[in-house]
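User: quick one, fold this
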Amino acid sequence: MSSGDFSIHTETCDEFDDGMPISSLPDEVTSIDDLDCECWSGFESLDDI
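Assistant:
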């Protein structure tokens, strides 16, 4: 499975609510810009997550 086959969302994301909760972000995520869903817009950086 490539990284383009899934997306990551917050637990309160309105657009996607059937995903499996994760305890940490994948290694491929190196900045907040790597998370393309609008549900991450409330965070300034990965340190805020």
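User: anything notable?
Assistant: The chain has one domain: 1-49.
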